[in-house]
Amino acid sequence: MSKYKIASVAYLNSKPFLYGLNNFPFKSDIEYTVDTPANISVKLLNGEVDLALVPVAVLALLKHYYLLDGYCIGAKGPVQSVCLFSERPIENCNRILLDYQSRTSVMLTKILMSKHWKLYPEFVSTEVGYENEIKNETAGLVIGDRALELKSKFKFIYDLSEEWMKLTGLPFVFAVWVSLNEIPDEIKSELTKAFQFGINSIDKVIAEEEKKFIGIDVGNYLTYGIDYIFNDEKLKAMQLFLNYIIEIEETVV
């Protein structure tokens, strides 16, 4: 039997999941790789992996999909790692540099600009190193570990999960575990246990990771910034977000 292939992001926020994958005594033949959200999405769409932790916006591109119930990368307030950075108030910025690593955060930025702030700046695609161009009237969306590292460098920081909650009163879901095919029961059962094991071992994860992320409050981020449980409230939030994506894209067309 071939191995069941899983792909996850390598960001700090996914470390509890990776801890579970590394330390749970699997009986099934499972292997996993890590990559950026954008690359993982391509791998899933191309059938290179069986299950992937993908940005929620990818779901809008799929005709059918299966979720691994119970777990996600979400937030019930400030997430800390998906932010707009600028030298000026956001209403005084006329260009927004969009992080190239995740479609979800890009779409969230566009939704908040239109529906929350009522602003219509120029959106600019980016490449590696674009963070250096965030200055004057140009703001920048930065996600993941790089966002955590930029906290002390900008006067104005807008946490997009916090702003979403102001707009909707709901939490936000950044990524979910998705398969294009039905997930085998034995795989589903073992992954559920493995991910819960990782979340239950959060103190060990924090102890490991805070050695690597000097100057970042890893404990606060993994305990209070990220919420890993996918429940009915987050499902409602996710569906609203996907509906907003349709509205935004129809407006652009």
Percent of residues in helices: 25-40%
- SSE string, helices as H and strands as E: EHEHEEEEHEEHEHEHHHEH
Mean pLDDT over the full residue set: 94
The CATH topology of the largest domain is: D-Maltodextrin-Binding Protein, domain 2
Radius of gyration: 18 Å
Structural classification: alpha/beta
Q: CATH superfamily of the largest domain, please? A: Periplasmic binding protein-like II
Instruction: Strand order, main sheet: write it out.
Output: 2-1-3-10-4-11
**Helical run tally:** 9
Describe the structure.
This protein is 39% helix and 24% strand. The chain has 253 residues and is α/β, with parallel strands linked by helices. The chain folds into two domains: 4-73 and 174-231, Periplasmic binding protein-like II (D-Maltodextrin-Binding Protein, domain 2, 3-Layer(aba) Sandwich); 82-168, 3-Layer(aba) Sandwich (D-Maltodextrin-Binding Protein, domain 2). Helix 1 (15-23) links the parallel strand 1 (4-9) and strand 2. Helix 3 (103-116) crosses helix 9. The longest helix is centred in the C-terminal third of the chain and has 21 residues, at 232-252. The chain starts with a strand and ends with a helix.
List the helices and strands and how they pair.
Elements: E1 4-9, H1 15-23, E2 30-35, H2 37-45, E3 51-55, E4 66-75, E5 82-86, E6 95-98, H3 103-116, E7 122-125, E8 138-143, H4 145-149, E9 156-159, H5 160-168, E10 172-179, H6 185-200, H7 202-209, H8 218-225, E11 227-229, H9 232-252
Parallel strand pairs: 1-2, 1-3, 6-7, 6-8
Antiparallel strand pairs: 3-10, 4-10, 4-11, 5-8, 5-9
Helix pairs in contact: 1-6, 3-5, 3-9, 7-8
